[in-house]
């Protein structure tokens, strides 16, 4: 089944280009296009929209603010003429971020990501106790949680360490990552670290000793982890 989508852009020429790209793409079914973001928001509230192609720079409300305001959030691909919105866009779990002028081959790459993501959600759900999905170098990667040693925050990225392979980097905040993880299995112990509770073998001098041999600090803000760990 084609993905039901809506395109929003206050520039008529840019919106016409999106319309042409969408109609040329068999994986998509265009429900409506909007130059007005407020009208688009009202339409999305009333209809089953699966994918939103959304311009960021609009006069009444930005695309990012629009996504924050939506109670029912579809998949989103942001479009804009400015690179500096990329990090904030991915904080909203954007499927992709297209920099104008957008050519059709790059558009198809973004749509393929949406197709893959929707398929994963249908098969497994966005996450469960066994795995999560994250983007790594423009590919949707399945992360088996049983093999995660710990997660480390590096500015706008998270480095995921494994016991059975090399680390990977994904563009995501710690807050967003925690929302995806089972809270009974993973806990934050520091502004820079998330650990699998079962792999903490000892706590000594406010440091967590992991089964991998890694030793990570437990900050004052996350001292409640010690009580949680003792109760396991």
UniProtKB/TrEMBL annotation:
Modified residues (4-aspartylphosphate): 55
An MF annotation (GO) of this entry: DNA binding
Domain called HTH LytTR-type: residue spans: 132-203
InterPro entries given in the database record: CheY-like_superfamily, LytR-like, LytTR_DNA-bd_dom, Sig_transdc_resp-reg_receiver
Residues that span the membrane, as ranges: none
Protein species of origin: Pedobacter yulinensis
Protein name: DNA-binding response regulator
Domain Response regulatory, residue spans: 4-115
PROSITE patterns: HTH_LYTTR, RESPONSE_REGULATORY
UniProt-listed SUPFAM superfamilies: CheY-like (SSF52172)
């Amino acid at each position: 089944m084609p993905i039901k989508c809506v395109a929003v852009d206050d520039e008529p020429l840019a919106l016409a280009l999106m319309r042409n790209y969408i109609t040329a793409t068999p994986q998509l079914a265009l429900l409506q296009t909007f130059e007005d973001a407020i009208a688009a928001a009202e339409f999305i509230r009333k209809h089953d929209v699966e994918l939103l192609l959304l311009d960021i720079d609009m006069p009444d409300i930005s695309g990012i603010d629009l996504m924050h305001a939506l109670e029912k959030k579809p998949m989103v691909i942001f479009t804009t003429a400015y690179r500096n919105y990329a990090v904030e866009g991915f904080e909203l779990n954007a499927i992709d971020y297209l920099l104008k002028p957008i050519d059709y081959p790059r558009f198809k790459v973004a749509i393929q990501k949406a197709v893959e993501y929707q398929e994963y959600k249908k098969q497994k759900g966005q996450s469960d106790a066994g795995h999560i999905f994250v983007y790594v170098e423009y590919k949707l990667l399945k992360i088996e949680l049983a093999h995660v040693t710990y997660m480390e925050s590096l500015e706008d990225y998270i480095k995921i360490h494994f016991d059975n392979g090399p680390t990977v980097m994904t563009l995501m905040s710690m807050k967003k990552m925690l929302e995806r993880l089972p809270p009974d299995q993973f806990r934050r112990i520091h502004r820079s670290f998330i650990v699998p509770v079962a792999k903490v073998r000892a706590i000594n001098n406010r440091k967590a000793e992991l089964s991998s041999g890694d030793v990570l600090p437990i900050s004052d803000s996350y001292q409640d982890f010690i009580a949680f760990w003792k109760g396991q």
